[in-house]
Amino acid sequence: MSFEQKLIEQFESLNISGINASKHLHHLYADYVELVCLISNEIVSKSDILDRLVDNVDNSSIIGKTLDGEIGDIETEISDKNESWITTIFNVLLERKEFLKDSYAFDIIENQIKLKSTIGSTQKFYLYLLISSSLKYFKKLQNVITSDFEILSEKVLTKFLPPKAIVKAFGNNSDFTGNAKEKIERLAYLLNLDVNDYEINQISPISSKEEGLDIIGWIPFDDSNANTLIILVQCGCGKNWVSKRFETSRYENFYRFYKHPPIHTLFIPYALSNKDGRFYQSKDIATPTLVFERIRIMQYVKAIDFNTDFQSKQIIEKCIDYQEDIV
Fold first, then answer.
1. What is the CATH number of the domain that holds 174?
2. DSSP labels, 95-109
3. Separation CA 33–CA 253 (nearest Å)
4. Model's pTM, two decimal places?
5. Beta-carbon neighbour count of residue 112 at 10 Å?
């Protein structure tokens, strides 16, 4: 099936009526509010979101009499708790607006959110990252979305590192050829690293997978010494992104890093930064890990052309033009 046909079928069956997440994960509900605003193409208020969640059976544990697990709450108390909870969600949205300024794709005025009237390349990047963290609603387009995320991550890492750095894709968009073992050995040669033959020989000779490494970046010295700064990147768009960090750890078995361990790095489209200088879901992030999440990624996209470099631009344009009833 062609991409164009998948695009048509996806929006013919698009359904974002509910969200399955614990109520304390406020950043995920903030994403949901943004997504509703994008797809409805209208101004969205706190009450619109509450009504939408009440109407969806999947959210019965979030809104209504079981909001806090207290079945006996009277209606006034329930209303107060719902109002407090949705206010927290909108405060997260305000944090994002404060961080990103003009790069944020939405306007928030008097507890209402709406899509900006002018959406440029930078704002489209934000919308792209939003749908990348909402893959369950875009199942027919997942391959395009995730492939583009690897491309974007490679470009962002290149801009983050100094000009002398070398950055190469090692996953779906790689120019490395051959089976997995051949790719890993070729990369070791470029890094001037010794390999652990016992570990590498355990890789199936018919496997072409990258064994958990999507992007590699390093800052070389002019000498041939293998003691250098190496960044191993795994990209994760799905809900299981927390476990993705461990996939690059295999390379500490494959290679003998000389006098300095690699920096395990995670690129995710979720917005984890908050005003307190910590990450949402911080307890779930393994250490040591360098994290590039949505807010950090957005700092490096202004010099990247979304309109020409990414197939996902058609998905975003379709989202902007699409209109669904709010409730």
1. 3.40.1350
2. HHHHHHGGGSSEEEE
3. 43
4. 0.91
5. 16
**Quick one: 222 and 239 in the same domain?**
yes
How are beta strands 263-267 and 290-292 bridged, if at all?
Answer: parallel
Helix (H, G, I), strand (E, B) or coil at 292: strand
Band of residue 241 on the pLDDT scale cut at 50, 70, 90 = confident
Longest Cα–Cα distance of the chain, Å, equals: 73
* 240 assigned to some structural domain: yes
Report the candidate in 258, 243, 237 with the shortest Cα–Cα distance to residue 153.
Answer: 237
Give the residue numbers spanning the domain of 122: 3-141+314-321
Q: How many residues does the chain have?
A: 327
User: Is 327 part of a structural domain of the chain?
Assistant: no
Distance, CA of 114 to CA of 123 (rounded, Å) = 13
What pLDDT digit, counting tens, does each position of 127-148 carry?
999 999 999 999 999 999 999 9
Same-domain check for residues 131 and 153:
no
For 173, other C-beta atoms within 10 Å of its C-beta total 15
What is the predicted pLDDT for the residue at 63? 56
249 found inside a domain: yes
